[in-house]
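Might you be able to review the protein record set out just below?
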Amino acid sequence: MSDRCTVFRFILFSALFFTSQVFSNQVSALTRFNLINAESGAVVQSNIAPSQQIVLGDVSAFNVSVQITDLKYDRIHFFTSNGHSQTESVAPYALCGDINGRYLDCSARAGFTSDFTLTAQAYSGNAPVGSAASIRVLVQQPQPTPVADAYFGLVDANTNQVTSTLASGSQLALPDNAKFNVNVRFLNITYDRVRFTTTGGAVREEGVSPYAACGDNNGDYFSCSGVSGFAGNFVLSAQAYSGGSPVGEPATLSVARGASGGGSAQATFGLIDADTDVPLASFFPGSQVVLQQNSAFNFNVQFSGVAYDRVKFNTSNGSSRQEGAAPYAACGDYSGNYLSCTGFSDDFTLTAQAFSGTKPVTMPATITVLVRDSVDDFTGGDLQPPVVTTQSGNQVVSEGSDVVLRISAMGSGILYQWYRDGVSIPGATANALSLNDVDSDDGGSYYCVASNAAGSTRSGTITVNVLAVAGSADVAISWSAPSSRMDGSWLSQTEIDTYRIYYGLTSESGYSNMIEVDGSNTRAVLQDLTFGEYKFALSTVDINRLESSLSELYVLRVQ
């Protein structure tokens, strides 16, 4: 076939017809998308059905994963209307990929700064299985509700991932061999450069985001390890400037180096809220973690750059246990539901070591956990009202989505109460508020009041806007198979490998969606197309994977 013209002659739409069955607000039960915060790895929105749209809102670093049930497949192909294409062969099947379960940031890639359509198609081997599913992603500039003047981001310089976010004035413990960098962002001020200094004598300036203390190359962070002024214990100061004038107050971060080294730097500990199974923070070995007494917590651990099948945990209070499966929780879990650690009323150290079979493959990694029952233990003064340190941003979601609003507060004996439109919500007395299967009645202005014996503090307002899901329809397409090529030579049906159906809204440039159909079929059903005017075209791919030109354009209003 190599000497034949690769362009087929066919009248594909001569026998083409479309039929529509309208299912208002009905979506596929097989495919669901999840919006991920790529900085923390937390699921921001889950259970997003095909044909819905999501708004990124204040999720500046994002990724999208997909789950397909009742279907056997071994890979998922993603493509978007902005030209991005990627195939993932292992869970969590993320649009922009992941590294050992750490999601990569889509916003750092070209083409993701404006709205786009995302389509996911499952494959078994080289054959598509099931129907492609699409959602619309609307990019909205973040509008965070500030609760502090400045935040530092601790960056793993090996992966360029932000592992922890720290308010100005925080303390941080790092191993000697940690490959790290630190960025900074200021709220409520306008600035165009940042001047960094350390008590070890380092001085440098950054004129572009992400304003990294040791510099970066378009988001590829350089390591501070080995840089003069960043060894031993030091205080890092960051001063924002506008032109030649300083603006705002300097932000400071105290860094302690010299924690346990060796293989421990390969580990990352995660602090888990055992009531909600939500990750709260990540820590390198050698770090100190402060917990309030009687809190429900657990820790997990991940080792990078090494193959292992179990983790052994030891604590300084004498407990010891082993875990043979992820998420490798220090106090165990049941299918991802974390058990709460008990019997830890005093300070302790937690050590984790990875094994392959019976052989240790890393050095032990250790963190120190300080258990406190009052902020008096830190300040030496009187009990103070809670301080709200972080909170969720505004949410724009589609009907049927699940949303979690969350605040974090520092203090002793904290009680929580959530409010919507100024009215307290019965039973909403945790730091997180879950809104499941939302509808228009769930929209409104939310805030949380954190209180203790010394007083109360109200969080900022979090606006939840619920978008109605547009009606949808299934569109059935059929066509006549081509029987000849452009040069007039015969085209056998056995030479046809697949058909490709390209479609999209007429208001968009190009085609935002494509599905493949086995060459033995001349009919396909496009499921759950949101009401609107669509354009369709078809091509044929032969067994040598040579694709024809597109058929004539066909336009249909789905309603």
In short: Confidence is low (pLDDT under 50) at residues 1-29, 141-148, 259-265, 374-381.
